[in-house]
Amino acid sequence: MYPEHFVAPMRAELTRFGVEELRSAAQVDAAVTSTRGTLMIVVNSVCGCAAGKARPGIAMALQHSTRPDRVATVFAGADIEATSRAREYFTGYRPSSPSVAILRDGQLVYMLERYNIENRTAEQIAIELTAAFDRHCAGAAATH
To answer: In 53-97, where does DSSP find H-type helix?
Structure first.
């Protein structure tokens, strides 16, 4: 497990954009079951592709006019229980960090895995995510 002083700056790269931290399995379950519409869960990581590509790409994508109704994060290697629980909701996908999932009413509708991240730039990741937001999040809460 990574020491908190080591991961704190990496957490802040997302939380400064209003991304909610989920630090326990109970918090993950509550977020998934209580969110009407879409919930994006970012599996954050200490790896280089998280630092140079995923987090900057996510930050850019969150500036888009269409966004998930709620955005949260777990930290692989730090929030072990929360990360494990989040991955249980990512049905059909192997554990991957970093990664980004979008759930609608608790059901997985989109997944961006590490292999989709590591060979792209932050800008390309932002484009991919904003397209996913447009496809899966536009009007999601309004339909309930």
So the answer is: 55-61, 80-88
- 3-state secondary structure labels for all residues of 10-25: HHHHHHCCCCEECCCH
Tens digit of each residue's pLDDT, the chain (144 residues) = 888 899 999 999 999 999 999 999 999 999 999 999 999 999 999 988 899 999 999 999 999 999 999 999 999 999 999 999 999 999 999 999 999 999 999 999 999 999 999 999 999 999 999 999 999 998 755 443
Q: Which of 95, 133, 134 is nearest to 115 (CA)?
A: 95
Q: Which amino acid is at 45?
A: S
Task: Residue 106: give its domain's CATH number.
Answer: 3.40.30.10
Domain that holds residue 45: 4-137
Judge whether 96 lies within some domain: yes
Provide the domain count of the chain: 1
Catalytic annotation, residues: 47, 49
Residues 44/100, Cβ–Cβ less than 8 Å: no
Residue 143: inside a domain, yes or no? Answer: no
Q: Tell me, rounded to whole angstroms, the distance of Cα 89 from its chain centroid.
A: 12
